[in-house]
Specification:
Strands 1-2-3-4-7-8-9-10-11 form a 9-stranded mixed beta sheet, with helices on both faces. A two-stranded antiparallel sheet has the order 5-6. The longest helix has 20 residues. The protein contains 14 helices and 11 strands. α13 runs antiparallel to α14. The protein is elongated, with a radius of gyration of 22 Å. Helix content is 36%, strand content 14%. The chain is α/β, with parallel strands linked by helices. It binds S-adenosyl-L-homocysteine and iron/sulfur cluster. The site of S-adenosyl-L-homocysteine has 17 residues, from β8, β10 and α14.
Length: 427
C-alpha cells in the first residue's frame, strides 16, 4: 500500500524467493498505550497498579467504555473511575494512537492519513503506514494495514517490494481505526470536520437498532486490505478485530469487517473460527503455473488446497459469501477462457467475485487490462450469476487514471490503489 521506500529490487530477483523474514522487532515504549489491549490485558494492567482482583472486572468494563465506546484520549475526564486510579493510570500508561503525520482529502471525499509508528530500535528511524477512508452514500470504508511492508512478494504488488517488514501490534491496528475516528469526529458527540461526509443509512437500517447501525457513523466498514498479509500476523489482527467488533465498544458488526488474504491456507480456518469476519481471497489466476508467478505463496499452498480451505471456511453460506479478488492484468490473466475457467473453478463455493483493475506503480512489469476487455470478462462472470463484479462509479474513475493518466497515477497511486481495493470490497 505505501510507496514510501523503494528497495530497487527488480521483479526477476524478487520472483526467485517466496518470502522474506521479518527484519524488525517491535520494542514497546516505556509508557505503553492501553489502546489495543484486550479485556484480559487491561485486567493485568490494572493488576500492576494494585487494583484488587475482585474489582478488576468492573474497572475493565469502565475503561472499555471510555476507551472504545467514547474514544477518550486521556484519563482525566473518566468520571466513573476514581481520581486515584486515574492518576495511577496516567502515570504508567497512555491512550496514544499512531501519530498522524499528514492528511490528504480528495475531491471525492476520500481521505488518506499517513501514520507514524516506532521503527527499527537500532536506527530509531520511524515507519509510516497509510490508512484510507472512502466515504460513499451508504457506507464509509476504512482500509487498514496489518504489517509495515509484507514478507510475501506478489509480482504485481508494490508493498511486496519493500524490504523492511514489521508486524503491527494489535494496538497499532486498532489505533488506525481510533485515529480515523478521532479525525472524522466519529465518536459519540464528536465534532465532524466541516468538509466531512456522513454516509446515509437506509431507514430500514436506522430502525434496526443494531449497535453497528448507529445512523450517524462515518466508519461503517473495515477492510484489512492495506499493507501486509493479515494471516501472517494472526494474533494481533485477531485481537484487534475482536476489539473493533466488541458490542460494548466500537461495535462494528463482523459482517462489515473483511480480511483479505493471499492464501495462507493453514490459517484460514482459524480466521473463521477465532475472528468470524468476512473473508476475501486474492485469487488472481485460475492455473497454478500462472498463480505461482503472480502470488508466489501459491507454490506452498496451490489453488486446490486454497479452494478446499474456502469451502470449509467456518460460517460460509450464501448469506456469508467469500469474496474472490481478481486483479485484471493485460494479456496475463484477462482472457475470456480465464473468465470461464474462473466461474468453473468457483462452482459450489458461496462466492462473490471482485475484478480489480490493476493499479500500476513505477517499475511494475504489468499493465491494466483494457476497459473493453474488463467488460467482456465481467460479462462472463455476470452471466454465471455473479452480480456487478467491477465496482463503479469510483472504479471507473480510477480505471481511467489507471489506463490514461499515467503521470497522475504515479502521484496519486497510494491513495488510488487503496481506494480501489477498498471500493472493490464494498457493495
Ligand atoms: N496481503 C493481502 C491484503 C492486502 S493487499 C492480500 O494480498 O490479499 C489487498 C488487495 O490488493 C489484494 O487482493 C492484492 O492482490 C491487491 N493488489 C495489490 N497490489 C495491487 C495493484 N497494484 N493493483 C490492484 N490490486 C492490487
Ligand atoms: Fe501485496 Fe498482499 Fe501479496 Fe503482500 S500478500 S505482496 S500485500 S498482494
Amino acid at each position: 500500500m505505501t510507496i514510501s521506500s523503494d528497495t530497487g529490487l527488480s521483479t526477476p530477483s524478487r520472483s526467485a524467493f517466496l518470502e522474506k523474514t521479518p527484519l524488525e522487532r517491535y520494542v514497546a515504549p516505556a509508557k505503553p498505550t492501553l489502546v489495543g489491549m484486550t479485556r484480559g490485558e487491561l485486567s493485568e494492567a490494572l493488576g500492576t497498579l494494585g487494583v484488587p482482583e475482585a474489582q478488576r472486572k468492573m474497572r475493565v468494563q469502565q475503561l472499555w467504555h471510555w476507551i472504545y465506546f467514547r474514544g477518550f484520549t486521556s484519563f482525566g475526564a473518566m468520571t466513573s473511575v476514581s481520581k486515584e486510579l486515574r492518576a495511577a493510570l496516567a502515570e504508567r500508561f497512555t491512550l496514544d494512537r499512531p501519530e498522524v503525520v499528514t492528511e490528504q482529502v480528495s475531491v471525492d471525499g476520500t481521505r488518506k492519513w499517513l501514520l507514524r509508528l516506532p521503527g527499527d530500535p537500532e536506527s530509531g528511524v520511524p515507519h509510516e503506514v497509510e490508512c484510507v477512508y472512502i466515504p460513499d452514500t451508504e457506507r464509509g470504508t476504512l482500509c487498514v494495514s496489518s504489517q509495515v511492508g509484507c514478507t510475501l512478494n506478489c509480482s504485481f504488488c508494490h508493498t511486496g517490494t519493500q524490504r523492511l517488514v514489521r508486524n503491527l501490534t494489535a494496538g497499532e491496528i486498532v489505533g488506525q481505526v481510533m485515529a480515523a475516528r478521532d479525525l472524522l469526529g466519529d465518536w459519540p458527540g464528536g465534532i465532524r470536520p466541516r468538509d466531512g461526509v456522513v454516509p446515509q443509512r437506509s431507514s430500514k437500517e436506522r430502525i434496526s437498532g443494531k449497535p453497528d447501525m448507529r445512523a450517524d457513523r462515518c466508519i461503517t466498514n473495515i477492510v484489512m486490505m492495506g499493507m501486509g498479509e493479515p494471516l501472517y500476523n494472526f494474533e494481533a489482527v485477531r485481537d484487534a478485530l475482536l476489539i473493533v467488533s466488541d458490542g460494548d465498544g466500537i461495535a462494528l458488526s463482523k459482517r462489515r469487517i473483511t480480511l483479505s488474504t493471499s492464501g495462507v491456507v493453514p490459517m484460514i480456518e482459524r480466521a473463521g473460527a477465532e475472528i468470524g469476519c468476512m473473508l476475501a481471497v486474492s485469487l488472481h489466476a485460475v492455473r497454478d503455473d500462472l498463480r505461482n508467478e503472480l502470488v508466489p505463496l501459491n507454490r506452498k499452498f496451490p489453488i486446490k488446497e486454497l479452494l478446499d480451505a474456502c469451502r470449509n471456511y467456518p460460517g460460509v453460506s450464501n448469506a456469508k459469501r467469500i469474496t474472490f479478488e481478481y486483479v485484471m492484468l493485460k494479456g496475463v490473466n484477462d482472457s475470456i477462457d480465464d473468465a470461464k475457467a474462473l466461474v468453473r473453478l468457483l462452482k459450489g463455493i458461496p462466492a462473490k467475485i471482485n475484478l480489480i483493475p490493476f493499479n500500476p506503480w513505477p517499475g511494475s512489469n504489468y499493465e491494466c487490462s483494457d476497459w473493453e476487455q474488463i467488460e467482456k470478462f465481467s460479462q462472463v462472470v455476470f452471466d454465471a450469476g455473479y452480480a456487478s463484479p467491477v465496482r463503479t462509479p469510483r472504479g471507473r474513475d480510477i480505471l481511467a487514471a489507471c489506463g490514461q493518466l499515467k503521470s497522475a497515477t504515479e502521484k496519486l497511486s497510494a491513495r488510488e490503489r487503496m481506494a480501489l481495493r477498498a471500493m472493490a470490497m464494498v457493495e
